[in-house]
What we know:
This protein is an alpha+beta fold. It has a domain at 1-53: Arc Repressor Mutant, subunit A (Orthogonal Bundle). It is 30% helix and 12% strand. The chain is built from three helices and two strands. A two-stranded antiparallel sheet has the order 1-2. The longest helix has 9 residues, at 34-42. The protein is rod-shaped, with a radius of gyration of 25 Å.
Amino acid sequence: MSAAELLVELGPQGFTLTPAGDGIRVTPAGRLTAELRDRIRRHRPELLLLLSPLSPAPAGPEVTRADLSPERWGYGARGRPS
């Protein structure tokens, strides 16, 4: 079973998994069986990747209105090459 399949299995059972540092917080923890706890431990690295938010894209250069003007790129006011 893959980590993704484990998540799909746990969701309908009412479990929520969230990354907590190097570990995973499972709620409600009191309902975890020893077998489920072991499976979560075995898949911990993959689960952490699946549960972690995507990192934001790096900021690019700021684009100004002047950068978008047709004249800036060698076009006249009517959109034809000057």
